[in-house]
Specification:
Blueprint (H helix, E strand, L loop, with lengths): L2 H10 L11 H19 L4 H21 L8 H13 L2 H33 L1 H15 L7 H8 L3 H25 L3 H9 L4 H35 L8 H10 L3 H29 L7
Helix pairs in contact: 4-12, 5-6, 5-8, 5-10, 5-11, 7-8, 8-10, 9-10, 10-11, 10-12, 11-12
Length: 290
């Protein structure tokens, strides 16, 4: 009798053959259901195929809105042609390199500082009590609001641009790191102490691996904040960069160039986020995944 028949017989209260009253019947039924669920999972559409489908639908919707003149939107083909023109004369390449350099510099500095401060705050209660009010205070202030102060104190060079990006990445990552350290299972720490591990060993072999997923999630959030900040940061007397180019195009109502900048930022941010996600999966293989 198959699984469906067994369930129907049980629901109807009909007598079952003696062979089905075997204690192993329940295990057999659970195994059959597990195999059925596994087959259903294997029939799912692969994620890359869904990604391509989503991209195609988005482009089609964009082209449809542009064709009907909604908001004077330029179509995908017009934006692609404008992007090709900017690539041929080297403008887009220079802007991308300038923006990526600023984002990576501010993001790297902010992430390193966030990891160090987050670990210190999570491991030492005194440091946490001293630093947490300031962290929470500055988290309520948008980094963009500090641009005028950064210009006054640091001039109009690269320093204020990188500073506001650094601040955005730092404030987004430090809380995640702190939560990762604070949330470490005390059973693991106590077990390591029972086995004779010193504080340094516990920190390196227990706390750091357990907090790694939180750190990487904080890095992904910080990367998004860095890209969200770079456009405004490049409004500070910049001569190149995607944000600068978009502002310059706004003056002449050049929607094609504005959309080229938007697409470039989105693609670059997506690629960098996928790289971080790949690193997260490799560094946290010990975690159970769905």
């Amino acid at each position: 009798m198959d699984v469906a028949a067994a369930d129907q017989a049980e629901a109807a209260g009909s007598p079952e053959p003696a062979a089905q009253k075997d204690p192993g019947r329940g295990q057999w039924r659970r195994a059959a259901r597990k195999d059925t669920a596994g087959a259903a999972r294997r029939r799912r559409v692969p994620a890359p195929a869904l990604n391509v489908l989503s991209l195609a639908v988005g482009l089609a919707l964009w082209a449809l809105l542009a064709a009907h003149g909604v908001g004077d939107l330029p179509g995908p083909l017009a934006v692609a042609r404008r992007g090709g023109d900017l690539l041929r004369d080297g403008t887009l390449e220079g802007d991308i390199l300038a923006s990526v350099r600023r984002v990576l510099t501010g993001f790297a500095l902010g992430t390193v500082a966030a990891v160090l401060v987050g670990f210190l705050m999570g491991w030492y209660p005194v440091v946490r009590a001293l630093c947490e009010p300031w962290v929470q205070f500055f988290r309520t202030i948008p980094p963009l609001a500090l641009i005028p102060l950064a210009v006054v104190l640091m001039g109009i060079g690269e320093t204020p641009k990188i500073f506001v990006i650094f601040l955005a990445a730092f404030l987004s990552s430090v809380v995640a790191t702190l939560q990762g350290v604070v949330g470490v299972d005390r059973t693991l720490v106590d077990a390591a102490r029972v086995l004779g591990a010193k504080d340094r060993t516990i920190f390196v072999r227990v706390v750091v691996p357990a907090a790694a997923p939180f750190i990487l999630v904080g890095m992904r959030i910080g990367l998004g904040s860095a890209w969200a900040t770079v456009v405004a940061a490049e409004l500070i007397a910049a001569q190149e960069g995607l944000g600068f180019r978009m502002q310059h195009a706004e003056t002449y109502y050049d929607l094609d160039t504005i959309f080229v900048g938007l697409v470039a930022i989105g693609v670059l941010g997506l690629v960098m986020d996928r790289l971080l996600l790949l690193a997260e999966r490799r560094l946290t293989r010990w975690q159970e995944r769905r």
